[in-house]
Design brief:
- Three copies of one chain form a homotrimer.
- By secondary structure, chain A is an alpha/beta fold.
- Chain A folds into two domains: about 140 residues, Rossmann fold, CATH 3.40.50.1370; about 150 residues, 3-Layer(aba) Sandwich (Rossmann fold), CATH 3.40.50.
- In chain A, about 40% of the residues lie in helices and about 15% in strands.
- Chain A is built from ten helices and nine strands.
- In chain A, the strands form two sheets. A five-stranded parallel β-sheet of chain A has the order 7-6-5-8-9, covered by helices on one side. A four-stranded parallel β-sheet of chain A has the order 2-1-3-4, sandwiched between helices.
- In chain A, helix 1 crosses helix 6, helix 1 packs across helix 10 and helix 6 packs across helix 10.
- The longest helix of chain A is centred in the last third of the chain and has 20 residues.
- Chain A is globular, with a radius of gyration of 19 Å.
- In chain A, about 55% of the residues are buried.
- At the A-B interface, helix 2 and helix 10 of A face strand 1, strand 2, helix 3 and helix 4 of B.
């Protein structure tokens, strides 16, 4: 399966997703026995124009588990562009000559596509702008569900929180479109509901969805709760966040085999009391990020 | 010898210290012949919430000399916690899933213990807060003395400088408690003297100590001078620092086989004129940091 | 050929340059077939007191292509010196005990020489201060010309832009002195012309040069155009930069086999329309930086 750049989640067809999930599972087995793969001559550049220790660690650890090497910059903006007015395109042309794959976190929507247009090496988008794409997060979210349920068809999911600007929820919704009989509840304060572009996409694909503002109406009906943070300052009354939060009481209402996912970091919406519940999958989800990123790296490096 | 986390210096018993020193000596031999060990599939995370280029380099070089790989962040605070309110515990849960050992420099006392409570991988405390613990510094200080004297029993040492907030002097004093017939002179401005918690610990163990404010009274009576920095602004009169400084004149009064140690960085308290004196051990001390950290990494990774 | 430290461009004799160019060419072949060399036990410290993502990536990728390992700090100033008043000399003494070679970008002229005076490991100067040295840039510039023309004798070159403070143009001029029948046009606003120290050096060596302020007078007469940025604020009228810029119109006047070089990053002086011209060598130039740095690393590590 040819894969040049990884720019957005939508570029993945169902067969590509299935290949990715197969490879991710294989990577999990390799990591479990402490092995590495044969990529010791490959160099990955980790080019982050915005901070994200977790995402960067996940990619860099993935490259290390493959046996490869990593050039890393934690704050590319401060260190080149801002200082001397360097163009993203020139930076990418140069860095892509030195390395075999570039993992790029950029601050502007479309940054990864701009990079891919000039790069000599594959670009993996590690997030470009609020409301932009973060495809590897969406892919690991999807894999986490797939890994437990063995299928994505027939899934009923509630996405909860700040949905209008949440790129993880947006991307996941777009990926779920590709499967059959999926039902999505979007649960958020009305002013933060999922935007029309995604809703139109769902309608085009015939995916059932419902806009909700009360979690309690749907929590007992879903296989997966996908919880996201509401950023400080967006709600006039901060205490209103409680309506979009999960705690011990919410757990009571959920199905016994439901899964709770969260892209992390969390704030008040996800109580620590939930951590020990067997339905809490958010730390497994971050582990799956390692395997999915290992798999994606092999897919772009194997060409 | 089982060693899960390295949180504070006191956790090391005398037999553990002896094993550590044996391993450190072996590491020195391996490094001298340019070899590496068989840890190429191991990944260390270097998670620094406070700056320390030297300590970070020492740990990362140690991991490289073992053959391993390193994920590094120079300023974790800016890049995750502060930006999005991420919890230390969640960060550690996630990063410890991606890596085999975490070296943590945190800004709060107790940060390393909090990390250890939730981590899937061993935590090595690389300093947690002013006045907190910095066990690997204390261990390399102790090893530097042991390596020369072949024993720590019967040692007479003067600790000089800002002792109340100096975590290196505090930790070293606690480690020296474990040996026989140790005598400690604490030499500092009265308002910066070693705190009662350490003094009580010494009394409990029957260690002889004396509180001094004039270095000249004791400098000719000690095997080891352990010098530390007095931070700017703590003395009403900055020129008063001279009373707690070593220069060519002080060298005259010291024993011919005494050792001068300093955790570095230095300011006025340690004149460059001392550098060429055979009793100056502070650069050897930093080299020993490499070997001690290699040894500690093997001790937690070998489980 | 013995090479301990790489501090300035002038230290390279013509035979050393020829050895460097031979090795660089060999490195290009090794990199092209995706191989690495046998330096897996070697550790390079990348110690940057000033930001430069491109230069740092070039050095670190070079070390990775040799099989080696890298300790990296993106902003050493913030992380040690400024915070605690650490001396450059002490930092170098310590870091050079942990590593096999130090690549140093310092903020003060003479920083690399100060480091070399105390270092246990080879120092490679990756730039020390505005107007200071940046020898590896000058060497890769020279190699880029040599690689195409197979000789540097008889070269006619125009150096254009802010020449008084441009360390790359200064260093390149000094290196070109070593070859026969070189002719240099210095083209810049009069207040930014090449300084007397370099001009005197050229006169001593009998190198022909001419001070110009109009690019159009010379552009059709040169083998190489070496273009540099004019920093914002230096010209009273920013639009005056156009006189020292290359665009499609300028290309018309240039010789068909001329080469356009630029150390990058660029601003208005180098139009993107030039990128597709076969005479544009500035991205090849950055690639050559990888090979030259691989070669330099082998030269200091092979001792």
């Amino acid at each position: 399966m040819k894969l040049r750049h990884i720019i957005d989640a939508q570029q993945f067809t169902v067969p590509m997703l299935m290949e990715l999930f197969d490879r991710s599972r294989a990577m999990e087995r390799i990591a479990a026995r402490g092995g590495t793969l044969d990529y010791q001559n490959k160099v990955m550049a980790s080019l982050f124009y915005q901070p994200s220790t977790r995402t960067r660690c996940s990619f860099e650890a993935a490259m290390f588990r493959l046996g490869g090497r990593v050039f890393s910059t934690e704050q590319a903006t401060i260190f080149s562009s801002e200082v001397q007015g360097e163009l993203l395109e020139d930076t990418i042309r140069i860095i892509s000559g030195y390395t075999d794959v570039i993992v790029l976190r950029h601050s502007e929507i479309g940054g990864a596509a701009r990079a891919a247009a000039v790069s000599r090496a594959p670009i993996i988008n590690a997030g470009d702008g609020k409301g932009g794409q973060h495809p590897t997060q969406a892919l690991l979210d999807l894999y986490t569900i797939f890994r437990e349920r063995r299928t994505l068809d027939g899934l009923t999911i509630a996405m909860i929180g700040e949905l209008d600007r949440g790129r993880t929820a947006r991307s996941l919704a777009q990926l779920l479109c590709k499967f059959d009989r999926v039902k999505i509840f979007f649960v958020s304060p009305p002013e933060m509901q999922m935007k029309d572009d995604i809703l139109e996409c769902l309608e085009t694909r015939g995916v059932w969805y419902s806009l909700e503002s009360d979690m309690n109406q749907v929590i007992d009906a879903v296989d997966v709760v996908y919880l996201t943070q509401i950023r400080t300052g967006r709600l006039a009354d901060e205490s209103g966040k409680g309506k979009f939060a999960i705690d011990a009481a919410t757990l009571q209402k959920m199905r016994p085999n439901a899964m709770i996912l969260h892209p992390l970091p969390r704030t008040v919406e996800l109580d620590k009391a939930v951590d020990d519940d067997p339905r809490a999958f958010y730390f497994q989800q971050t582990m799956n990020g390692l395997y999915v990123r290992m798999a994606l790296l092999t897919m772009v490096l194997d060409q």
